[in-house]
Amino acid sequence: MKYVKFKMMIILCFLLLFASQAPAWHDHTHLAVCKAAGFDMWYHCAGPDIAKIKAGNVEAYNHWFNNSAEASVTPQMVFDQVDRYNKRSKIFDTEGHLLGAIIASLRAYEKDLRAGKYAMYHLVYCAHYIGDLSMPLHNIAYDDFNREHHDANDGIVENTILNETEKISKHIYPITLSNKDFEADLAREIARIANLSRMLGYKLRAEKRDMTKQEAYMQFKHSASLLKAVLQHYNIPASAKEAVN
Description:
Blueprint: H1 2-17, H2 27-36, H3 47-55, H4 57-60, H5 75-81, H6 98-114, H7 120-133, H8 144-154, H9 166-169, H10 182-207, H11 213-233, H12 240-244
Helix pairs in contact: 5-6, 5-10, 6-7, 6-10, 7-11, 10-11
């Protein structure tokens, strides 16, 4: 009996050690980032979080990268995560693979296009992952600080952002993704934004505080700018509102 209890305690500790991370930006925040970038299917951009209800960690691990080593993110690190897309391994992939999921979802989009299939939902997934990329607490270790502050930071502007997308769009900046070296350019930009996000995460942790609304909007601009560049690469038409602007 003692052996059974001991074994159960070991299993419980193991599960707690590798527990899944909390969600990232809340729904309206994801919708607003996609809308600001001019994605015509912005209204679907919270969908990948909904998918986690049934897909569980197969999808959840695509949404974060717990950079426990606090390593500077490189383009090679991005590519190293691509093959983990839509996979889960609580033993061998404890940190998640958000960075690689962005490129992998675009490869899935291109594959379905070549096969003559409807491929736009892959872009929705990609847009969501690009949104997660700017969330500071999805780019650092999921430690006590992260757990305690995660939900508050996820929803820092949730109540107002969908009606204030201009606060994101006015800060969008050009990102060049060449046709010749598209994935290399994309990996470079993913690494750049991941590093900006993790540095803010470290700052928040050191100061034991949540993001300010201004800091959040400055993060959103990186996601919106990268998403807009991806949409332009694939010649995806901007939404009517974006076209007018």
